[in-house]
Amino acid sequence: MNSKKFKLKKFMYFLYYFLNDVRKKYDNFDKSVKDDRNSYMYNSVCNPIMSKSSDYTDVHKNFCLKLVRNFGHFSNNHEFLNYNDEWCYDLNNWIYNSMVKHKIPKKIITECFGEYEYYMKGIGEKPRCIYYEYDNLYEDQMKIIKLIIFQSNMDIVKDMVTKESNIIDFHVQKYICDCVKIYEEMNRKHCPQSNEKSEKSNNTCGMLNTFKGMYKSFLSATQQENYNIPYLDDVENGYTKKCVSSRQKLPLTVPGVNDAYALPSLTVYRDEKKDENSPPSFIISEKPGGSISSTVSTAFGTVAGASSIVALLYKVNTKFHLNI
Fold it and tell me: Which residues contact 37 (CB under 8 A, 6 or more apart)?
């Protein structure tokens, strides 16, 4: 489990600002139930669950209360009947993040889902969500979640790369390259032709194929001039030509302490006088921030405590060399 905490001693994780809506969803899932008028109903579910093991802690109970609240079936409205597949994906990603971060026993999660499913059947409705046991379904679960988040926000990425402008947003380019690299590594590792692949490998390859199809539909066929969009049919060469060739180096500064969710404004202006095949010049403009030594420890603490799984998804080496 320790390896799944994303090697916080080596890496600092932060948000891509253009996925701000995703962060808000996860923050909403993780907000406190302290002042919730329906908390007594959440307790009616969680207290019996907590009593089944002396190993359960207050942290575990707090997660239980939040999960029961997030299902929505104890709310004062019927909005929970309108929850869709995207909501379910987001909820499961928050659950997995919490499980890794707080070492939540799987038994607590399954019992909460059991109570929710029982309630929904009691009112003649199908559950709007099931528990995705990522550990049992997929290889490299965190990488799969990264691709799922990219996949569900591909329309946002497409809108940004197709807008008419001579300005290249560095974060968008890096986000695309990061996800393409994940796809390439996972596809090469888990999807060779074999009759002896495990069910997890088959599920993983199925998810990668779905990702590839959506990527090709949304991005590969997109007409745009400013961004380097690698093709997934020849991803290794495409990644090298489109991403690695554009590798640049960031200055040794990080966002200030109060900018936990705000990234420096990294903007790329394409020099129209240069050859169109030349890598773009990066003009970096950032808010005043401290040096690595004065801010990394604070940033680690802030990000590690952030509720959004996205805050744990995108990394920069502590030497701050861009790996694209």
Answer: none
| Residues 169-183 pLDDT 10s | 777 888 888 899 999
**Cα 260 versus chain centre, distance:** 16
127: phi then psi, degrees, rounded to nearest 5: -55, 140
Half-sphere exposure of 214 (CA within 13 A, CB side): 20
- Give one DSSP letter per residue of 245-289, joined into a string: GG--B--SB---TT-TT----EEEE--TTS-TTSPPEEEE-----
Please report which helix (H) or strand (E) contains residue 11, including its range: strand 11-13
Neighbouring C-beta atoms of residue 17, cutoff 10 Å: 14
Q: 291 by DSSP, 3-state: which? A: strand
For 55-79, the pLDDT digits (tens) are 999 999 999 999 999 999 999 888 9
Tell how strand 266-269 and strand 167-169 pair up.
antiparallel
Cβ of 301: how many Cβ atoms within 10 Å?
13
- Give the phi and the psi of residue 249 in degrees, each rounded to 5: -120, 130
Given a cut of 50, the residues of the chain with pLDDT beneath it are 1, 5-15, 248-324
- Pair type for strands 266-269 and 315-317: unpaired
Amino acid at residue number 114: G
Taking the C-alpha atoms of residue 248 and residue 267, their distance in angstroms, rounded to an integer, is 13
What ranges do the domains of the chain cover? 31-132, 139-317
Whether the CB-CB separation of 29 and 94 falls below 8 Å is answered with yes
- DSSP tag of 218: I
Strands 11-13 and 315-317: antiparallel
Query: Rounded CA gap, 171 and 173, in Å?
Result: 5
